[in-house]
């Protein structure tokens, strides 16, 4: 018997890594088998899912819960009166607030009304969302740990205030894979209200893959008729020639992968292949000329303008029905430190009708029952004023992490309910609080994932989206 040759660490890893191609092929074949036989469970699912996909309508800058969803008659009654010290209790606010004691309570800018059989209170700012209130679950006891925008957004989307962790969409792509060979599992689109002075910066780490393989990072679609750069072939290069070039490049990369065993080389191969498939799929995706006029009207007058929230909502529906796992729309402009009576109207005008239209469109196509829709920001707004009560054109509210509202619809969510309650001025949660990690755990649960079991080992530790926290909010499950 010939003795085994001495193997260097590099050679061992290289030879061992050659099995990755077969593993990837096995995964593709398994997905095809599941598509042909829906009864076959996905191996990575921990329990039967309520939903297959998720769309997150993220409102950057923090919508004011006390002006939109959380009606407090006392704010109307005590408008202009000082905030009682008893509500503060040593709480930490942003440096723009300073000491909160002595601040004056501020009534909602627009009136509230009850809607639907559920009797949900929704502001006149949002008539279209109000019209679908019986399809919505309002989480009125949301809480977070961060008092400034970027850390709070990072916490909401990645489970950590420090950038660099994998985001929700990346975790879903890692845990569940994609339902499409032609589109990314995780797609991101951004928009900003026109003429706003309070837009937020869209950092790439809001859709990053962190320490997960880079193929799970969100793919950002641009706000233009050509949503992805460099998809078109140069002059003189047709599709068969591009296919041959990619095959040769894949062979070179595979040879390099077998020599070094670097998983990022495998990710590069997969990304080149995805880009090739997107050359055919994205032009069809972004062509909305065949959408019925009735559908376009439902999304509002901005739906034909690429880069608007309305256009992005329509694109989100088209992505979801074509197999995208997670679509994350991020709309900036909600940072109303001194513009409640001016720019808040713009943000609501730009987002209200498209948000409701997306829910109705998904429902009409039979997709809402297995699609989770999430609408919300990174925190709320103070029930007291920032600025001078006598200067109404510049009324504002500061950051408020202690209580705010998020709403959910579809995919296993109980419709027509409100969960959680704040005190009589919307300052503190008094029943059924829901922390950011609880919401993350619940979203994963709806998609068939146990948040404590979806982990990735990095630097000697098993990481997860919810860090070491989180509990599924079972009362809101259908």
Structural class: alpha/beta
Taken from the alpha-carbon principal axes, the silhouette is: globular
- Rg result: 24 Å
**Kindly state the mean pLDDT as a whole number?**
86
The separation of the N and C termini measures: 64 Å
Number of strands: 17
CATH-assigned fold name? Alkaline Phosphatase, subunit A
Number of helices: 13
CATH architectural category: 3-Layer(aba) Sandwich
Tell me roughly what share of residues is in helical segments: 25-40%
Please report which band the strand proportion falls in: under 5%, 5-15%, 15-25%, 25-35%, 35-45% or over 45%.
15-25%
Task: Sketch the major β-sheet.
Answer: 9 strands, mixed
Contiguous low-pLDDT stretches (5 residues minimum) are: 1-7, 10-43
Provide the domain count: 1
The CATH homologous superfamily is named Alkaline Phosphatase, subunit A
Order of helices and strands: HHEHHEEHEHHEEHHHHEHEEEEEEEEHEE
CATH class: Alpha Beta
What keywords describe this structure?
single chain; 478 residues; alpha/beta; Alkaline Phosphatase, subunit A; 9-stranded mixed β-sheet; two-stranded antiparallel ribbon; 17 strands; 33% helix; globular
Describe the structure.
- The chain is of the alpha/beta class and 478 residues long.
- The protein has one domain: Alkaline Phosphatase, subunit A (3-Layer(aba) Sandwich).
- It has 13 helices and 17 strands.
- It has helices at residues 9-17, 20-36, 65-68, 73-77, 127-131, 149-158, 168-176, 239-260, 263-286, 293-299, 309-321, 343-364, 436-446, and strands spanning 53-60, 112-115, 120-123, 136-143, 186-192, 219-221, 326-332, 371-376, 380-381, 399-400, 404-410, 417-419, 421-422, 429-431, 434-435, 456-458, 461-463.
- The longest helix has 24 residues, at 263-286.
């Amino acid at each position: 018997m010939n003795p085994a040759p001495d193997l260097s660490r590099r050679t061992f890893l290289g030879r061992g890594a050659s099995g990755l191609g077969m593993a990837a092929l096995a995964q593709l074949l398994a997905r095809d088998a599941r598509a042909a036989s829906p009864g076959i469970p996905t191996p990575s699912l921990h329990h039967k899912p309520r939903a297959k996909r998720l769309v997150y309508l993220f409102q950057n800058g923090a919508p004011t819960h006390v002006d939109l969803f959380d009606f407090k008659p006392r704010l109307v009654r005590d408008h202009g009166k000082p905030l009682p010290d008893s509500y503060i209790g040593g709480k930490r606010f942003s440096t723009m607030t300073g000491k909160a004691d002595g601040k004056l309570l501020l009534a909602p800018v627009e009136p509230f009304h009850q809607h639907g059989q559920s009797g949900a209170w929704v502001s006149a700012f949002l008539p279209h969302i109000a019209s679908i209130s019986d399809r919505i679950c309002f989480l009125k006891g949301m809480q977070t740990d961060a008092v400034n925008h970027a850390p709070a957004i990072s916490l909401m989307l990645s489970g950590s205030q420090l950038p660099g962790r994998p985001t929700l969409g990346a975790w879903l792509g890692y845990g569940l894979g994609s339902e499409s060979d032609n589109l990314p599992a995780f797609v991101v689109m951004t928009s900003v209200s026109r003429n706003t002075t309070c837009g937020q910066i869209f950092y790439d780490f809001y859709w990053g893959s962190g320490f997960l393989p880079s193929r799970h990072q969100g793919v950002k679609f641009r706000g233009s008729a050509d949503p992805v750069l460099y998809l078109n072939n140069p002059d003189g290069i047709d599709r068969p020639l591009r296919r041959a070039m990619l095959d040769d490049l894949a062979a070179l990369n595979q040879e390099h992968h077998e020599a070094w065993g670097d998983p990022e080389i495998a990710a590069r191969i997969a990304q080149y292949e995805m880009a090739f498939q997107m050359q055919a799929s994205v032009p069809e995706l972004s062509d909305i000329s065949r959408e019925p006029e009735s559908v376009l009207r439902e999304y509002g007058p901005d739906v034909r303008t690429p880069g608007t929230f309305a256009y992005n909502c329509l694109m989100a529906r088209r992505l979801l029905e074509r197999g995208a796992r997670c679509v994350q729309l991020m709309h900036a402009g909600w940072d109303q430190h001194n513009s409640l009576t001016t720019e808040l109207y713009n943000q609501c005008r730009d987002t209200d009708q498209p948000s409701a239209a997306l829910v109705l469109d998904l429902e009409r196509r039979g997709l809402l029952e297995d699609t989770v829709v999430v609408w919300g920001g990174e925190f709320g707004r103070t029930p007291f004023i920032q600025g001078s009560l006598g200067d109404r054109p510049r009324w504002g509210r500061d950051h408020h992490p202690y209580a705010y509202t998020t709403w959910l619809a579809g995919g296993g969510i109980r419709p027509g309910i409100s969960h959680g309650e704040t005190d009589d001025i919307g300052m503190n949660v008094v029943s059924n609080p829901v922390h950011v990690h609880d919401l993350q755990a619940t979203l994963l649960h709806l998609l068939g994932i146990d948040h404590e079991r979806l982990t990735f080992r990095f630097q000697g530790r098993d990481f997860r989206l919810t860090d070491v926290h989180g509990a599924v909010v079972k009362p809101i499950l259908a």
